[in-house]
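Hey team,

Filing this mostly as a record. A colleague (T.K.) asked me to run one chain through the structure pipeline before their review meeting, and I want the input and output archived in the tracker in case anyone asks later how it was produced. No errors, nothing strange. Just documentation.

Input sequence:
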Amino acid sequence: MNLKERINILTKLGQHLLNKDEYLEAVMHRTKYNNAWFTIENQERAIKAIADHYLQKDKLEKWAGKYILKEPKKRKRVGLVMAGNIPLVGFHDLICVFISGHISKIKLSEKDKYLLPYLIKLITKYDAGAAQYFEITERLKDFDAVIATGSNNSARYFETYFGKVPNIIRKNRNAVAVLNGKETPDDLHLLGKDVFRYFGLGCRNVSKIYIPEGYDFQLLLERLHEYKEIVMHHKYKNNFDYNIALFMMNRTVYWNNGCIVLVENKSIASRIATLHFEYYKNIETLVPQIKEKENEIQCVVSNMQLNGFKTLPFGKAQEPELDDYADGVDTMEWLVN
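Output structure:
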């Protein structure tokens, strides 16, 4: 199977995912039952994003065209340890391995173990020859390289277990937003997408905002309150209530609009239903401050240009394209070489 054929298969998958599929709907309901964080809405959102941003023929061809892709003389077996924080979070790695002509040996997350097998089933339906590129396994062994995504704690085990083969090991990261106080109400509403999508569980979700000294929170709290329906989800509500109780007991100063808690904290990562903030004096001193925590940051959202950082518009943090690589590591370049 050559590159053109693989791109055509992925294009067919993208077309399929944009249409009604009753079996896929059943898989999504089973997934929701297995993991309450994976609501039908969030699964549909993830699937549509994959179809729109990853599985369009022109995008696939343009992306693949950036690399010298030759059919490997011997296909490598690339272990993929999938995370389970948001639906189909490891699909981009799967595409990279497939397009490069290698074999994916997949260790699914217990939190997301039904969606990906069905998508692979669809791929092999379009061309039975594609089946040789995918293997789902309970325990990874007999691999030539590994891409493993997890927490900071699991990364230590990954580094020990997979350290003898070429590897990409990903740890916890989050997105941050930099505000200047001149944002429009629409900007702040879009920021809410970056904060609340997937309940804030993704590595590209904004978990912290940097704000100028003297910032007025009122408009921000009002616009974020437009996502108030999120507290109707029982697991999110439990976290929200727990955080408020914790902050009250510790006498921590916080802002609360009924669906998220804002608290001043220097850490990038925040609790579920909590958004950290930190004041800054000027952009010139803020940039090196963010640079120091670059290894904890997946992407930066802002209307401003920040020296040394690619900034995303508000509302776009959870809409990566094919060349938006996790942790800034070019997975395709790594696979090709």
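Quick notes for T.K.: The chain has a mean pLDDT of 96. The longest strand covers residues 206-212.
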